[in-house]
What does this fold into?
Amino acid sequence: MTTDLDVVIPAYGDDALLREAVESVRAQDDPRWRLTVIDDGADRSPELGSWLGEDPRVRYLPNPVRLGINRNFQRCLDEATGDWVMLLGADDRLRPDLVGRVHAITAEHPTAAWLHTDALVIDGAGEPVTPLADRVKARTKLTVTGETRVTGGEELATSLLHGNWMYFPSCVFRRGFVGAHGFREGYDIVLDLDLYLRMLLAGGECVLLREPGIEYRRHAASLSSSGAVDGTRFAEETAYFAEVAAELAARGWNRAARAARWHWTSRAHGVATLPGLLRAGEFDTARRILGLAVSTPRVAAEARRSTLT
It folds into this structure.
């Protein structure tokens, strides 16, 4: 079966939230979709495979060996066959009209590199929440006054480097464009931002959709949350920003390069974790994160190595 839109879920085993994500795809108003679940969990679930196999529109592909987040995301892109592809989080949910809206907007903008909808943020129980991270995103994101806004180049790069306000599961990529870039190995936390920037440097444009297309779940078990606790998130971000700043400066995107060098929202996020770490007695981790938050770009790589050892 061929479709114009592939929804691919990078999953990590069977649980109730994954099944909610699957059901949100099945409940779409527009039936022009295909769903693939790529399972990188430690344990294989025969029950999950059987449940998914009941629907001919759904594929279940367990990895023979664990790939890790970066390579599993890459496999998600590699397995897609539609003209457009999105990677839905295993704990997120699509809004019922998302597929229909994607078809309408991609018909209007067939050469866009990707689309990005806003997101409704929910907690582990599925209730709307507005955590600090999402309040910051709301303040830093580009404004969409109508239904859509087309953006790209240094404007979008600078905005994302001030604060990565895009929700990755809200992105719908033109497969022919994103396939030429993919996910660079070595990044787990910034793999989405790195992909956006490389697509922008290659001339890609993004269509922003004002209305939410997904329900994005915030909870303590997510990779970004756990990375914030042990410091790996900020170490990876600090090293990456130092690297990309040099590349942007060489391109002549000086405003974007400056935003990358100082990455104020990432630093502020690191500082915000300190009270909780101190209350938990994680003094070494707190000290390392504070060092990253106040470091200059020149010491970023050394700071990262220190945090990871």
About this structure: The longest strand covers residues 205-217. Residues 223-229, 299-309 have pLDDT under 50 and may be disordered. DSSP finds 14 helices and nine strands in the chain.
